[in-house]
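Residues and backbone
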Amino acid sequence: MMSMIEDRYLNRLRQLTADGRRRILGLVGAPGAGKSTLAQAIVDALPGKAIIVPMDGFHLANAELVRLGRASRKGAEDTFDSAGYVALLSRLRQQRNDETIYAPIFRREIEEPIAGAIPVAPDIPLVITEGNYLLLEHGHWKGVRPLLDEVWYVNVDSALRQQRLVSRHMRFGRNEGAARQWVLQTDEVNATLIDSTRARADLQFHWSS
């Protein structure tokens, strides 16, 4: 996947991790922008030096979303354990040499987070965290940015991004009509909020054609 990332981005990553000390890189962007794909491409380009800790691991459980009356807005900023996410990032910054830290992961096939699924070893210099709300400036979310060494905003053509989302929702069980409705009524509402944070990023990442 190294060829997916232009040299200027790779060189920036190498500079960021040159001294071997723990760094945390945030990848932010609208749903379907390709954050997970970019995160994996970076891991592949820096073998043994990077690991992904996604924000999506902090989705609230479906039962809790139902209790709160937020199930129809799953993916909105208030459907995550934002305080828990900030706490994990803080631990990752201060990780001891004899400590393995475990992070949660979100499994789309069951639409639920799984605790303790990602082991982060203390000798990994680059932690990549990707998600929608890394640059929000209210609530617990405002505690995220100070814990990140650098944040990249991931850009992609809007029509392509929406089609990716429709395909994703269909792949995990929705019919086409329901998928398009979810994209327009939920994903795009979130995308507008996320786009308003773009200027706070350190770098605008554009996928090369």
